Structure prediction request, 253 residues.
Amino acid sequence: MPLPSVPEGERYYLIGDIHGRLDLFEAMVAAIEDDDGSRPEAKTQVVLLGDLVDRGPDSAGVIALARSWQQQRTVRILAGNHEQMMLDAFKKPEILRHFLKHGGRETVMSYGLTKKQFNAMTLEELFEALPQLISKKERDYVASFEEYIVAGDYMFVHAGIDPQVPIEDQKRSDLLWIRDRFLSHEGPLDKVVVHGHTIFNKVMDCGNRIGIDTGAFRSGVLSALVLEGDQRRIIQTIQNHDGSIEIFHGERG
Prediction:
């Protein structure tokens, strides 16, 4: 059987869940620019697999860097469940409470609230202040993130897919949130699915799917999968114990 491949002449850099780790993301941007510049010319696309926000210290900075990078090259961003929670938090205070418990506290503070200011606010006061902290323009940008991308024999998505449903009929809720039904499926899928959402200790190549969320916000390891032809490579930015960041290049997972 031929190996799965992306279209000829195309190169894809797929970045797993960043979760507010601007330091690792900045290092990854530099590593990808160096890697792409050192290789034969190709139609290069970068794809962020969602969950840019929450948990880590600088979600606002991650979104700002993603936007500026899009001005320089083709960078496509997929919606993650944490982006959805962020957008839903503007609907009513109880949804905001849920968002804050799952990493939203760090996101809100990254938009200009000090810890002292945050702690002094009631839930209702924060809900009233939220539209001024995170502008409509910023929210519209986050709401524009794509649900999935198909490239040759691959599909890129945040969480995964319902194995029983054709790609074009997938529910948004599954694309952003699915876990067990997708992860436990051992048979072939319509495409090889590259996804984030579920944390693994390393890039996890299961044949029918490849998980590239290595838990950057807590592990200090941000992973990217590089696809070109039928070849796969890995780039990781890794925080050392002294706070420095190193770049790792490897083959597959």
In short: The mean pLDDT is 97.
